[in-house]
Design a protein that fits this description.
With 372 residues, the chain is α/β, with parallel strands linked by helices. 43% of the residues lie in helices and 19% in strands. It has helices at residues 15-33, 46-52, 58-65, 84-96, 161-176, 192-206, 219-228, 240-254, 294-306, 310-330, 339-352, 362-369; strands spanning 2-11, 35-41, 69-74, 99-107, 125-131, 142-144, 152-154, 181-186, 213-218, 235-238, 261-266, 273-277. It binds 3-isopropylmalic acid (IPM) and manganese (II) ion (MN). Manganese (II) ion binds next to helix 8.
């Protein structure tokens, strides 16, 4: 029987709730599609940090490296100074595992309410390829005269040809199995040095993909085009910070942050990729069963696609989309069902197996470009 070793990192806040729901769905997928998983629980997060003082240790990195994939919930807690857990765990993991790409699909599934009037699923199906290891996320920055009126802070952005090319090449490969359109999103008119490097990479790599059309949009204009004409975009490749920002906007189009999924992809085969909902730990609603597990379930689907379980991935995607479409009918106050109940519904649909696959499923495209 095929077996995959998965490190499960539920983290803080609503992370454990949505991860538990996703694991129920994974149980169902294993039964139906005939594979098994070996799961290791990883206690990283606020509690672990407050008890031990440890963030991501070298020892933990080595233990995690031995897995085929990491299923991640959410990290961040009001009990810890902002940035400590985020940088010390999430960003540290993305760096340590050389997860070059943060892949963030922006897809509106049929029947899912979106705040954008008149938006249809046909018009909202794009993928953001966010460079995941550099930009302003890695430059330490410096400050002098802190706490005085002369306080001066410098925060730079790191852009290497190596990492940008890796992201851009992946984005072209993905575009070539999709609608064959790649958009570079940047701010080349102001960030002229970084912008020049990104543009030059796109120009060079683009020559290897003559059938993919290349487009460019400034990041501010992107925030206007995305809600108004998302159909203009197929694959969008962008810098770490811009990708962070535009994918929160993208999540709104898809029906909210609770719905959006992501994969932090290691492209080389020496370390695991990591799959996480785009939402954060939402400490204000933790423990109440109010978090939507769809983002976690769709992240699970991405993970399954990455592990070569394409049929299971498509089934989990279809079941999650179906449950999302049924939500408005359920909703009274709040979602109308708890996090756990929604997970059970998705799992039941996976077991039942009669939900038709989503048309043009991203999971099958990913299987062609994602596996190492
Ligand atoms: C995300 C999050 C993280 C990021 C934070 C928590 C460090 O916002 O995954 O989008 O900025 O990448
Ligand atoms: Mn973010």
């Amino acid at each position: 029987m095929r077996s995959h070793s998965i490190a499960v990192l539920p983290g803080d806040g609503v992370g454990p709730e949505v991860t538990a729901a996703a694991l129920e769905v994974l149980d169902a997928a294993q039964e139906v599609f005939g594979f098994s998983t070996e799961r290791t629980d990883v206690p990283l997060g606020a509690d672990h940090y407050l008890e031990t003082g440890d963030l991501l240790t070298d020892d933990m990195v080595e233990r995690l490296r031995a897995h085929d994939a990491i299923l991640f919930g959410a990290i961040g807690s009001p009990r810890v100074r902002p940035g400590v857990l985020e940088r010390g765990i999430i960003l540290a993991l993305r760096g340590a595992m050389r997860q070059a790409i943060n892949l963030r699909p922006v897809r509106l599934y049929p029947g899912v309410p979106t705040p954008v009037d008149g938006l249809t699923p046909q018009r909202c199906d794009l993928v953001v390829v966010r460079e995941n290891t550099e930009g302003s996320y890695v430059a330490e920055g410096s400050a002098v005269h802190r706490g005085t009126p002369a306080w001066t802070a410098v925060q730079e952005s790191v852009n290497t040809w190596y990492a940008v090319e890796r992201a851009v090449d992946f984005a072209y490969r993905l575009a070539s199995v999709r609608r064959k359109r790649l958009t570079l999103c940047h701010k080349t008119n102001v960030l002229v040095e970084a912008g020049a490097l990104w543009s030059a990479v796109v120009e060079e790599v683009g020559q290897r993909y003559p059938d993919v059309e290349t487009d460019y949009v400034h990041v501010d204009a992107m925030c206007m085009h995305l809600p108004v004409s998302p159909e203009r975009f197929d694959v969008v490749v962008t810098d770490n910070l811009f990708g962070d920002i535009v994918t929160d906007l993208g999540a709104v189009l898809q029906g909210g942050l609770g719905v959006a999924a992501s994969g932090n992809l290691h492209l080389g085969g020496e370390a695991p990729s990591m799959f996480e909902p785009v939402h954060g730990s939402a400490p204000d609603i933790a423990g109440r069963g109010w978090a939507n597990p769809a983002g976690a379930c769709l992240s699970l689907a991405l993970m399954l696609g990455h592990l070569g379980e394409g049929e299971a991935a498509a089934s989990v995607e279809a079941a999650t989309a179906r449950v999302l479409a049924d939500l408005p009918a359920l909703a009274g106050e709040g979602m109308g069902a708890s996090t756990a109940e929604l997970g059970q519904r998705v799992a039941a649909l996976v077991r039942d197996g009669s939900t038709p696959a989503v048309e043009g499923s991203l999971m099958s495209q990913l299987a062609r470009v994602m596996s190492p």
